[in-house]
Amino acid sequence: MSKSFSAIGQAEQGEEIDREAFTPGIEPQATWCPGCGDFSVLKALKGAMPEVGRTPDETLLVTGIGCSGKLNSYFESYAMHSIHGRSLPIARAAKLANPGLEVIAAGGDGDGYGIGGNHFMHTARENHDMTYIVFDNEIFGLTKGQTSPTSPKGHESKTQPHGSAKDPIRPLSLALTSGASYVARTAAVNPRQATEILTEAIEHDGFAHVDFLTQCPTWNKDAKQYVPYTDVQDSEDFDFDVHDRQEAAEMMHETEDKLYEGEVLTGRFYIDEDRRSYGEEKRSTGEMPEEPLAERYFDEEADWERSYDLLDAHK
Ligand SMILES: Cc1ncc(C[n+]2csc(CCOP(=O)(O)OP(=O)(O)O)c2C)c(N)n1
Ligand code: SF4
Ligand SMILES: [Mg+2]
């Protein structure tokens, strides 16, 4: 854990944190459509934070662009509503500069698995200590229902009027093979499990990926409402070890196939508690300073290294 590093306030020991602390003082009216699965992500996140024991001023939420990207308008914390597909590099930089922050990144399936797919892969590979919530509604919601990387083969939309000829991406398998140390899937229709999984993911030290199935009743009319769902940890039909990479890989593959056959499997798929995060690796080599870089902003005497200073060293 890197809680000793913080340039921003920390909760008092034993302080009770109320989920309502995460509701903005001037609460904007959510513009999500009635019945949208995105409401459940907000609810689960507000429910998870008191369990984790972090306050709004210890938390940074970086979002991408999409209906999902509006999450930080309705959630009280430090926040950045960033660029389409680019929430992860921004979140990574913030976490490295200020390791005491609880960093959460969030965005849609188009945002994270399409335009931002490269960042997803490498943030997982480097095991940056953060939680990445992907609102997976199997379409581009904000821009009115175009086919996304998780749309099923044959999916008809304005961009694919004859039906998509593409096989969907495998988000869980991609996270695992890239190097994520926590991989889970939950669904908007399962609020208890969603809160538990987000709590675990946020507490996890390393890159935690949560594929969050969120129905879009407006633009994905034929989309599943993700019911009934099965929790693979609760069901006797599934027996695999979440700490075993091979078993996890097989379970994920089956889960990804079954989603498009109408069977919704959710739960924890892979957990590696031993792997060190990127920040820990960097500090262990001595390359990262012990004190958070972010604290230098508050130090008028701070001696900043410029890139040309570094170049001089190589003359
Ligand atoms: C660089 C860039 N390309 C395209 C867009 C247009 N755009 C905005 S949101 C979006 C897709 C959103 O889909 P998704 O990420 O799945 O989020 P959702 O709305 O479904 O939550 C697109 C293509 C953009 N804002 N920026
Ligand atoms: S368009 Fe779909 S994803 Fe966007 S707010 Fe409406 S229901 Fe939700
Ligand atoms: Mg989407």
Primary descriptors:
30% helix, Rossmann fold, binds iron/sulfur cluster, binds magnesium ion, 315 residues, THDP-binding, Pyruvate ferredoxin/flavodoxin oxidoreductase subunit beta, pyruvate, disordered N terminus, 2-oxoacid:Fd_oxidoreductase
What does this molecule look like?
This protein is an alpha/beta fold and 315 residues long. It has a single domain, classed as Thiamin diphosphate (ThDP)-binding fold, Pyr/PP domains (Rossmann fold). 30% of the residues lie in helices and 16% in strands. The two termini are 39 Å apart. Pfam families: TPP_enzyme_C. Residues 1-23, 144-169, 276-298 are annotated as: Disordered.
Map the helices and strands.
Layout: H1 38-52, E1 59-63, E2 78-81, H2 87-97, E3 102-108, H3 109-115, H4 117-126, E4 130-136, E5 139-140, E6 146-147, H5 171-178, E7 182-187, H6 191-203, E8 207-213, E9 229-231, H7 245-259, E10 264-271, H8 278-285, H9 307-312
Parallel strand pairs: 1-2, 1-3, 3-4, 4-8, 7-8, 9-10
Antiparallel strand pairs: 5-6, 7-10
Helix pairs in contact: 1-6, 3-4, 4-5, 5-7
Summarize the structure.
By secondary structure, the chain is α/β, with parallel strands linked by helices.
The fold-level CATH name is Rossmann fold
How far is it from the N-terminal to the C-terminal residue, by CA?
Answer: 39 Å
Given the C-alpha coordinates, what overall shape results?
Answer: globular
Tell me which ligands are bound.
thiamine diphosphate, iron/sulfur cluster, magnesium ion
Give, in spatial order, the strands making up the sheet with the most strands: 2-1-3-4-8-7-10-9
| Number of H/I helices | 9
Biggest sheet statistics: 8 strands, mixed
Query: What share of residues is helical?
Result: 25-40%
CATH class: Alpha Beta
Structurally, the number of domains stands at 1
Corresponding CATH architecture: 3-Layer(aba) Sandwich
